[in-house]
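quick q for whoever's on today - can somebody do inverse folding on this one?? i tried earlier but teh output was garbage lol. tokens:
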């Protein structure tokens, strides 16, 4: 595995691979890798000739009062882990390489997908994500790019950008990887104290309670949302940011739960903001509700 710091160098490597007819898989990350990231890299390894993982803590997607400066970083460990799952190249540009002096171009998906849920409490976040992701797509020119379902809204926003701009690549979304007790893996879990770590379990449990209600036949999104909210509001140490029950295709509001449905929530546990979701395919309810 090779570590590449320069845009021109990774561009040259990827261009040559394309000319040789090789397929390229890109796994964009902000590092501090966990099993979730590694599952993306394994999927990329299985489907492509060349696997590039980018590790870049993107300042553009952090708000002024967010954790850009303290975001966990461990490049040596990340490189060891990336190599262990068969990544060919890790691309680790610094801030100046991605956004040189005078950088002034941004990419923004407008509309409902970037107006609700995480966008409310993190203004400018998705603009930062789409800007860096489009730059990475332009630099690496992958055939496929891999994102985690944990960031369900991010995956939908990126798919919209790819469709709207006719980008010639496939976005692959991989399932959420959870700890043994159900907490979704996240680099930010390291911020939690042991007590907060226990309290954080309220998030996957509340979403699971919402899913159970649907499985028992409930098709009213408001009732499912209330159930999740109730579970979270009753949980010690947890402050709700949002709970959303909406279309898993485009995050639009649903009158009745049917087809792809997303149950999503964000909470604060102490100072740490955690997100999680469950996506499911809901069949029409035949029993009288
Ligand atoms: O999901 C992430 O880690 C980041 O948002 C991404 C896609 C690497 C862009 O910085």
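ok took a stab at it. sequence:
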């Amino acid at each position: 595995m090779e570590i590449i710091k320069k845009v021109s160098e990774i561009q040259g490597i990827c261009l040559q691979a394309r000319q040789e007819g090789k397929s390229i898989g890109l796994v964009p990350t902000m590092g501090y890798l966990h099993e979730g990231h590694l599952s993306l890299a394994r999927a990329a390894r299985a489907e492509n000739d060349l696997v590039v993982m980018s590790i870049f803590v993107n300042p553009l997607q952090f708000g002024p009062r967010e954790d850009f400066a303290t975001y966990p970083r461990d490049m040596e460990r990340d490189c060891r882990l990336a190599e262990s799952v068969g990544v060919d190249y890790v691309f680790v540009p610094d801030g100046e390489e991605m956004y040189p002096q005078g950088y002034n171009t941004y990419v923004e998906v407008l509309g409902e997908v970037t107006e609700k849920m995480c966008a409310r409490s993190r203004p400018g976040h998705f603009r930062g994500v789409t800007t860096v992701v489009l730059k990475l797509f332009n630099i690496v020119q992958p055939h496929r790019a891999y994102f985690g379902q944990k960031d369900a809204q991010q995956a939908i926003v990126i798919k919209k950008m790819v469709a709207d701009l006719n980008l010639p690549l496939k976005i692959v979304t991989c399932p959420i990887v959870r700890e043994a007790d159900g907490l979704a893996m996240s680099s930010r879990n390291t911020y939690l104290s042991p007590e907060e770590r226990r309290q954080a379990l309220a998030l996957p449990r509340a979403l699971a309670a919402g899913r159970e209600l649907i499985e028992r036949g409930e098709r009213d999104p408001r009732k499912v949302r209330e159930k999740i909210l109730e579970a979270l509001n009753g949980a010690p140490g947890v402050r709700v940011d949002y709970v959303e029950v909406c279309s898993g295709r485009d995050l639009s509001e649903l009158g009745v739960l049917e087809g792809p449905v997303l149950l999503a929530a964000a909470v604060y546990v102490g100072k740490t903001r955690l997100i999680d979701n469950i996506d499911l395919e809901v069949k029409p309810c035949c029993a009288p509700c």
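fwiw Strands lie at 2-4, 24-29, 50-55, 89-91, 144-148, 170-174, 238-247, 259-269, 272-282. also The two ends are 57 Å apart (CA to CA). so keep that in mind when u check it
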